[in-house]
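Researcher: Structure for this, please.
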Amino acid sequence: MEAILQWGLGVIITIQQVHGPVQDSIFRAITLLGEEQFYLLLLPLIVWCIDYSFGAVLAVFFLLSNALNVIIKDIIQEPRPYSVDPSIKLVETTGYSLPSNHAQLSVTVWGAIAGKINQAWFWALAAVLVLLIGFSRVFLGVHFPTDVLAGWIIGGIVLALYLAYHTVIEKWLAGLKLWWQLLLAAGIPLLLLVPDASLDALTNSGTLFGVGLGLIFTVRYVSFSAGGTWWKRLLRFLLGMVVMLAIYIGLKAVFPPDGTAAGAACRFLRYALVGGWVAIGAPWLFRLTRLAGPK
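Model: Predicted structure, token format:
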């Protein structure tokens, strides 16, 4: 294992021979496409303005894939490349290294979107994005090449399972009684915290908790369509993001800090409210204000 990591370190050092202000800025911008903040823009955009059903399912799929990544990282506990050689560190990051979360989630998210669009040009675009995001992590010195490769492989397996079985699973879940749906939506996020209750796990499970419960009640009681005129879609997105950022940033400022039991519980609650706002709070408000019509 040590030999593989040393080889990976050599690859990073070789790649960084051409780094400079322009190159660094380009790859810092590319790597942002795999950050939490980017997905906090992308997923609500799809849910509120393009296709609610697909967007909500994609959000759940994204969060389950992310949970798998967090668990694997905490089991393997591989250090970041810059822990071995601090001189290669070009951006700030935290957590363990293997597998690359950016690589894994880029495959799952862009692959799922490509599967929905089902056009050759978009599959090609998705492949380019996946390759660039993965390469950016190596270039910036935050992942070994093997971390990125592992992320692509795991993401590919998860994507293949999603494309093959998501329709069957959705129909099965839709046929369950309400109390079973609620039990699964609340129970799975809490169970995911048993093997790992780190900050990343609390973030992911809290969001999954909110999205899952919100999806159930929206489908049953809030007839929401993400269609409509362009200006209504734009207003929905802007209004929805203002409230979501108020929850995301505002509650962080007033809640107890991380590192305590109260802080952990509040972190779970904050992200649950973010997920719930995306899945049910915003759609309900959009219907109330007539920015959206019924499904």
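Researcher: Any notable elements?
Model: DSSP finds twelve helices and no strands in the chain. Residues 31-76+156-288 form one domain.
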